[in-house]
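Q: I'm teaching a short session on how sequence maps to structure, and I want students to see two examples side by side rather than one. Could you give me a first protein with its sequence written out and its structure tokens following it? Keep the formatting plain so it prints cleanly on a handout.
A: Of course. Example one:
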Amino acid sequence: MRSLLSTRGLARTSALHPWRVVGAWVVMLVLAIAMVAGIGLDLTTAAEFTNDPDSAKGAELLEDRLRGEEPVTETIIIRATDATVSDAEYQAIVEQTTASLRAMDGVVASVTNYYETDNAGLVSEDQRTTLLPVTLVGTLDDAEKHATEYIDTVNAGRTTGFEIYTVGDVSITEAFNTISEEDLQRAEAFGLPIALIILVIVFGALVAAGVPILLALMAMGISIGITAVVSQVYELSFFVTNMITMIGLAVGIDYSLFVVERYREERRRGIAKLDAISIAGGTASKAVVFSGITVVLALAGMLIVPTTIFQSLGAGAIIVVIVSVFATMTLIPALIALLGDKLDWPRRRKYDAATIAAQNAYDHETIHKGFWGRITRVVMRRPIAAVAITLVLLVGATIPYFDLKSGMTGVETLPESDVKTGFEILQEDFFVGVIAPVEIVIDGPADSVDVQAGINQLVEDMEASGQFGPTTIETNEAGDLTLVSAPLVTNANDEASYETIKWLRESIIPATFTGTGTEVYVSGDSAFNEDLNTVIEDYTPIVFAFVLGLSFILLMLAFRSIVVPIKAILMNLLSVGAAYGLLVLMFQKGYGDFLGFQESPIIEAWVPLFLFCVLFGLSMDYHVFLLSRIREHYDSTHNNRESVAVGLQSTAKIITGAALIMVTVFGGFASGELVFMQQVGFGLAAAVLIDATIVRSVLVPASMALLGNLNWYLPRWLHWLPDLRVEGAAAHVEAAPVAAGGGDD
């Protein structure tokens, strides 16, 4: 029983009963598919706060005491090439469109037009464009079920000389969903074949290359099934599936890659199949477990942020990482046991004693030869220069980060489409804020002289500011809640809109309503986005402290050192900082045009914090794998310089291959059309590439050469801590020549 609690024992047991293990995983996959088909993924496109900021309080009051659940609205834009609203042909088109929409029972709740209301605000200055305000039936989720039917009805009214578009909650969400699905399919179609090619190059074998792909796909499928169950209880964003695919492909392939290669390495040393599986389980699999725990801890930082977006992304990533770790510990040993040396197909390796002895002698003599051997020799011979050059490069790449401007993007960042064209017409001919008005909720007696005076002054100040369109005022039947609503003249996601929200909250409302005994809340999309920005700013230091603190403790326990975790944290922060800087260069500064990236004046507010959590976890993968091999050799030889060389030489090819796979997967997402997915994909790919090359291949060995045995320093007063030992116990440790430049440090 005790052996089952160790990764070595679990691997051996899985290898002894391979068909049972494979069968269990197949059953889980079938159940997951059945779960998705049966109960479905109950996901939402809405982003909600799990705390109670100003915008949420206002929305709750409106729902409880004025209008019920927030209505789902659309704005139909009809623009004529030559005609004006005074022409009979124009009126006929408008009335026909209105009638078609009203005929959609159970879909459209109401629709009005200029001819029925005589509202001049529904007609553009040149009289060629008019608006039809539409309210749909039910909640956003209800309306989305009829999105295609509604949009097709709108488009059916188009005729020669007249353009008809619809912009609003449903059409924008439908556009984002459609493009998101296309981006996801493109990423999978791009990432999987290239990942397979990289695996074939790394392994030099087709069968071995297919095993990590199989594990990743199985982990993703099971994770989506688990997510289907979780979504019935907790509100999850529809982006959770993108997250599962992205992280599942990356870690699923990487984790199995390390274990399969360690097994093949042990076989090349002459170890019998079952013993080689056990050794791989006690070393590489154990490193996978610690890596997975580190990744989960980093991703758990997103669960702290009180928004459904962060919590959904964090939950999806954590689920797929946990499933991938368990699959690596059990399914991979079982598959290896079934395949055995067929992993090397189409090559046929000889594992006879003479061949193995010759290979081991060759390995012994060439520990500092070859590409990675030469890099190790150069870096460790001149560690100060290597550290200095690396720091200059990474710090230089980080500098643009200080120009980072964050915010929220919306329909304006979509590729060319009907909904974007309609949005641009609104921006040109009307107030673009008409689709997302600012809503000021006054909780107090509307018939109070003070409250009425405050409302009048508020409206006067808003009109005088030049930042708002026409204002409307609505009071509930009880007379104790008033809504002042007005469209912004700027896009809801513009910095100017956020400044207007701050102006209302910090200046106008306190000056107008102080002493009236009322509570006033600013709600609406712009207020929601401003609150989201504030929440992210407030929680960023908390998340950083949480992730860095727990990672420090875990690494200290894993490597019995306080120097290793301090260095790991500093190096990962350098990688993340460089990724942030490159992100600003590619998107804000527009240097990403040659890669097909869309220039954006802002970086999505949630992206930097999201990148930190994901990157810190993923970069720790490589750090744990590299250091576990170094420590494994050091525990047997106590020769720091030699151990660093052996560790780097034995893992460099695999780490680089794993990093290239991650870069490929993330690059597939960066190739999509949604700008925030471009930012996420590029940020992840850039950081992983930097981390696996510059940091792991140069900075880590150089710094370890400088510090010598101090790398493994743990104060005596901490010796009581449990010894978790990531590296486990290898069956052997080959002595290797000391690196050029000196002996043991």
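Q: Perfect. Now a second example for contrast.
A: Example two:
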Amino acid sequence: MRLIIVVLCLALSGTVSHAQTAEKPAAPAKTPAAKSAESSEAERELKERRAKARSLLVALSSDARTFRDETLRARSLARIADALWQVDAEQGRLLFRKAWEAAEVADSESDKKLQEEIRQQKSRTGGGYAINLPPNVRREVLRLAAKHDRVLGEEFLEKLRIQKLEAANSTTANPNANNLTEAMSQRLSVARELLQNGEIERALQFAEPVLAHVTMETMNFLTDLREKNATVADTRYAALLSGLSNNPQADANTVSLLASYIFTPHLYIIFNGSSTSSSQMSSTITPAAVTPELKNAFFQTAAAILLRPLPAPGQPDPSSAGADGKYLVIKRLLPFFEQSAPPAMVESLRGHMGALNTIVSDSARRYDEDSLNRGMRAEKPAADREQALLDRVDRAKTSADRDSLYVQLAFMLGNRGDMRARDYVSKVEDTELRKQAQAYMDASLAMYFVEKKQTDQALEIVHKGELTSLLKTWALTQSAKNLAKTDRDKALEIVDEAATEARRIDVSDANLPRALVAVANSIKVVDVGRVWDATFDAVKAANSAEGFTGEDGELVLKFQSKGQSSVHTKDVADFDLEGIFKDLATMDYDRAVELARGFQAEGPRAVATIAIARAILEPKKK
């Protein structure tokens, strides 16, 4: 009986098992017709969403024309035009022209405010000032328009030329001045943006009328072009050289800027007598690997300019560098000539420099060798530079001199993320100067550690430094994002700390919604399920704050004393609404639109709405 029962149970088990298996047949493969139906449905849904997004922008464009703030009106109309261009170019062109009209008014008002702020700061400091430049709205409109329509871009550039907004600084007659007219600068800015996007031919079309001028901006454009296409850039540089040998307006500064293309790319030095102004637009300086023929062409042009006789005694020197500047340019470049130029040319330059030595000022003869050779030789080790400043501290005669040197030491160390910078600041005797320097230095260190993803050091400076709540929130949210993949629990803890810190900001302060938007952006990475609630908190805060626009998020560090002034501005996309609302639109379009409508102010509502529409209308990047 036991045997029969066991056999019977096994038989039944097999039957049940077979029955269960039969109840779950494999899903049949989709037929081509089913796949086609699904594809058609997806296309229909996408078309419907794009139609909604277009309607959203058209409705917003009607509202934007009545915005009271000219900057907001110009930006909104230009961005709507940019987003609409793919589906309605004619409407986009009309909106761009409306945006330009508003931008002209906005920039005029901004310039008046800027000049007044400079005047007030000069009256307080006795001449020095440190300012954060306002946005150039016409440049923003021009860039967007030129991206789609070259003719429209040229139209706007012509309007700038006619208006002569910076006639006092015009350099159309002098290829040596380190400035361009407003219209030229705008043109080159558009060309640079096209170049960054890989549109080399269009970039050159825009830049061509400006490239006959030798300035820091034009040389930097050619250097950027060389990094994209060395052959095209070298050809354009050679053409520039050929037109300068007999140009009476070319002088030593022309040569100094031309030399940068080959020997110190992205580092430019201009001489004004025995003083200099320099600009370094890259963290590393690497000589360009040009052909011997191009290098020789530079030597020929440079020598033709540098060996010109000086004006007769009593006659004015029309050059921008003067005798002192010419002497220093030859002294700086002579090692390059000695390496590769014909010996006769080298001897001529040495003789000319010897003649200049008899008439230049003592300050030109004693000019600091390290400054003169900047970019050509390796800098002194950091420890040597630090010790040199400490030696000067020991010799300082007044507390003000010592304070100035301690601040220099702090800046030098802070720039490389050395926490000892805080120790040097603590040695400053002037209470007000020490307080201002401490805030600037702690903020600089926080930025350094966040950018280098040194999370432990960033958290340390947050907890012990003199930072604003906005900067603490930013540093915490960035640290949380950096830890999201490696230590999610720690990241969640830091996000909560950031939210708590953000709420320390006054409810009427525009920095509160900025901080909460940053919190929402970090939650999107660390715990996406909470992102809607976090963004809703930012919307509520925006409705209580004054002056929140939903864009131009930045951190601004200012330091100003009688001997030094510094302004460091860092754009912070996580403070802006565009990124978070683009992401929300891809998650749930209708819910994102409803959330954007919750903004009471025109500015943030426009920014959020345009971001939602762009998320749907723009082609997805592969």
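Q: What should students look for in example two?
A: Point them to this: Residues 380-448 form one domain. Also worth mentioning: DSSP finds 28 helices and four strands in the chain.
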